[in-house]
């Protein structure tokens, strides 16, 4: 705020000026700056200033009053609505800034959790709906007002419950002819009351009456508020098949039965009968016709069958051994125990039990089983390293009960490679290459599994190495034909002691530069391999490789040279069509390298020649000619080759071999039938081998 007092003459007087300013207090303290200015415009002009800072404290609020007339109403299992009336007092500085709505919850019969803020509401809110609530829970709510002076006292609800869970279990046990003990486990619910019903022989359900403790109207058990595990005794149980059912009752608002009460679903008990002797039990072990090992503990186990629901109080196990000696072995509440058979042979066993009834129950059916020794196995062959195929696995077996089946398993590096199941009489097995051929230098685990006549199984294993011998060294004869192809005739070597039979061979051409090409494989003895494009007038080799049935190999290098005075063109994907260039054969070669030239400024005034850079691109051409005496068949054959094949292999007497695109010309004087003249322009391509 600014106030101007206008022009005044002070004449040396002291003059006091005042200005009143009103400010509004707020929740927090405020600081104000006050300034005064004195301005003299005439005479001795000048300006003077004075200022002072003033702090105005914030409003001091009092702790607010809590909401009044607060109520909580259950809407459903997931919602409760709270409502209240305002109770603020602004004159006493007890105004409301916010309303806090809190809750705490217990779940599934457990203890109550901690308080937590659910919602901070505006000061003028008069209700709030708690949502997202859960069934089978116990809630408590509270509200309070808040301002800078603090939080009011809280207003608390009582406990508010949602629909309880059904009892976890209902168990019925017959105590006597007319007495049944019913146990209700409601440990997962907030119990206020438990209601029981009963039915007989699958009939209609009816509320219980009497018993201990005495049931009230509609089958409610007395004085069990808060008790989660309840036992009630039916002292007048009817005869027959009896079953019970129980539910949990819970008032919504604390223990107030005058308002809404919620009920769980029913939980049903087992069905029992009045006390009777047990039925025959079921023997679980030993199994019918089972096999067990002599002098080793075995388990005898059974399942009692008590229609009245009572527990086993005693049991008798009758055992008859191979000598037809019978003993009774007594047990109490155990339904299994260990016994050790001392002799081999056939046994039989049966069991009966006793429950709450005074009489023993019926005997079970007999279970017959065998006690024996494990089969005794020994693998005799192979006794050492496996060096030949077929190889034999031989073994011996000793078992007084006989042998019912046998299985031979061979593994290599942990992987099963061979399996054969045989009858009980087999004692050896020959394994040929067609059945299983082990890799050379592998290690085999040979396992025999034997099932005795008793049904007992045992196994034994041996580990054997594989070392196949090499075959005999092969032989080869090399000739050439009229097409200047190489003919390689392969002969198998005769095996000596320690060598394998040869089953096949392959032929590989080895060029002077060391490059290799497979010419033929899987050749038999005395079989021919044809190489259609060997180099001419050049020393090279063929490597002939012999293979045994086991995959071992041996090779022989054979020298080769194909002499020729003519150039040769081979056509077709297999190079099987041949043209021998006739007399007066001429050849010319041309090589052209791709380059790029550039003129650079020299700066000295002289004319600059270009600089050239190689592009690593080569064009190679060959021009060949040939002349033949007139021959109609040859004439037509040359034309057919020119028509049918754009590509060829060219071999010349120098030993050069190139793969080319062929542009062919052929001419003759038809009238005089003079010589046939042939020429071809051959463009060299990237080398390819024929398909053999």
From TrEMBL:
Residue span(s) of domain Fibronectin type-III: 66-165
SUPFAM superfamilies noted in UniProt? Fibronectin type III
Q: Which InterPro entries match?
A: FN3_dom, FN3_sf, Ig-like_fold
Top-rank lineage group of the source organism: Bacteria
Report what the protein is called: Fibronectin type III domain-containing protein
- Lineage, please? Bacteria, Bacillati, Bacillota, Clostridia, Eubacteriales
């Amino acid at each position: 705020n600014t106030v101007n007092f206008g022009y005044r003459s002070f004449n040396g007087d002291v003059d006091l000026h005042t200005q009143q300013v009103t400010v509004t207090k707020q929740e927090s303290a405020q600081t104000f700056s006050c300034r005064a200015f004195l301005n003299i415009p005439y005479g001795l002009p000048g300006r003077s200033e004075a200022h002072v800072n003033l702090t105005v404290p914030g409003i001091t609020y009092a702790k607010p009053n809590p909401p009044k007339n607060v109520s909580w109403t259950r809407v459903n299992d997931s919602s409760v609505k709270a409502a209240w009336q305002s109770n603020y007092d602004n004159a006493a500085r007890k105004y409301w800034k916010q309303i806090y709505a809190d809750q705490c919850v217990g779940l599934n019969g457990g203890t109550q959790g901690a308080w937590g803020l659910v919602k901070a509401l505006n000061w003028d809110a008069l209700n709030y709906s708690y949502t997202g609530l859960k069934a089978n829970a116990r809630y408590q709510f509270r509200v309070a007002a808040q301002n800078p002076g603090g939080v009011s006292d809280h207003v608390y609800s009582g406990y508010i419950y949602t629909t309880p869970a059904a009892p976890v279990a209902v168990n019925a046990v017959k105590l006597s002819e007319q007495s049944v003990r019913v146990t209700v486990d409601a440990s997962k619910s907030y119990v206020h009351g438990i209601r029981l019903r009963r039915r007989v022989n699958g009939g209609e359900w009816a509320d219980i009456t009497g018993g201990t403790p005495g049931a009230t109207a509609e089958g409610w058990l007395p004085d069990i508020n808060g008790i989660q595990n309840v036992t009630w005794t039916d002292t007048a149980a009817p005869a027959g098949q009896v079953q019970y059912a129980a539910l949990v009752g819970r008032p919504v608002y604390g223990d107030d039965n005058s308002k809404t009460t919620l009920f769980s679903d029913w939980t049903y008990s087992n069905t029992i009968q009045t006390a009777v002797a047990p039925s025959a039990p079921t023997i679980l072990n030993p199994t019918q016709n089972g096999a067990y090992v002599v002098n080793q503990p075995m388990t005898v186990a059974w399942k009692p069958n008590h229609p009245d629901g009572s527990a086993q109080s005693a049991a008798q196990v009758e055992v008859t051994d191979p000598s037809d000696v019978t003993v009774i072995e007594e047990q109490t509440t155990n339904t299994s125990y260990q016994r050790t058979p001392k002799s081999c042979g056939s046994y039989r066993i049966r069991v009966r039990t006793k429950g709450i009834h005074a009489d023993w129950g019926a005997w079970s059916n007999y279970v017959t089983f065998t006690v024996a020794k494990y089969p005794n196995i020994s693998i005799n062959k192979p006794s050492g390293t496996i060096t030949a195929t077929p190889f034999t696995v031989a073994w011996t077996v000793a078992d007084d009960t006989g042998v019912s089946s046998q299985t031979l398993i061979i593994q290599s590096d942990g992987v099963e490679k061979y399996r054969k199941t045989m009858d009980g009489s087999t004692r050896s097995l020959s394994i040929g290459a067609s059945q299983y051929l082990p890799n050379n230098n592998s290690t085999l685990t040979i396992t025999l599994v034997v099932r005795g006549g008793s049904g007992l199984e045992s196994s034994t294993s041996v580990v054997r190495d594989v070392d196949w011998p090499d075959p005999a060294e092969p032989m080869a004869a090399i000739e050439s034909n009229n097409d200047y192809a190489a003919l390689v005739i392969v002969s198998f070597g005769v095996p000596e002691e320690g060598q394998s039979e040869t089953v096949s061979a392959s032929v590989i051409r080895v060029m002077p530069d060391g490059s290799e090409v497979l010419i033929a494989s899987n050749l038999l003895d005395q079989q021919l391999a044809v190489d259609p494009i060997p180099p001419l007038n050049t020393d090279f080799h063929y490597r002939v490789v012999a293979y045994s049935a086991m995959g071992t190999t041996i090779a022989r290098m054979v020298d080769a040279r194909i002499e020729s005075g003519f150039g040769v063109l081979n056509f077709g994907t297999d190079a099987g069509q041949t043209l021998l260039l006739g007399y007066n054969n001429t050849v010319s070669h041309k090589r052209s390298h791709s380059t790029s030239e550039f003129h650079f400024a020299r700066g000295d005034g002289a004319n600059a020649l270009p600089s050239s850079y190689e592009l690593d691109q080569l064009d190679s051409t060959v021009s060949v000619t040939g002349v033949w005496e007139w021959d109609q068949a040859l004439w037509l054959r040359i034309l057919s080759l020119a028509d049918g094949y754009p590509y060829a292999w060219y071999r010349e007497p120098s030993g050069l071999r190139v793969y080319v695109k062929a542009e062919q010309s052929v001419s003759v004087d038809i009238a005089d039938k003079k010589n046939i003249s042939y020429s071809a322009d051959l463009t060299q391509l990237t080398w390819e081998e024929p398909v053999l």
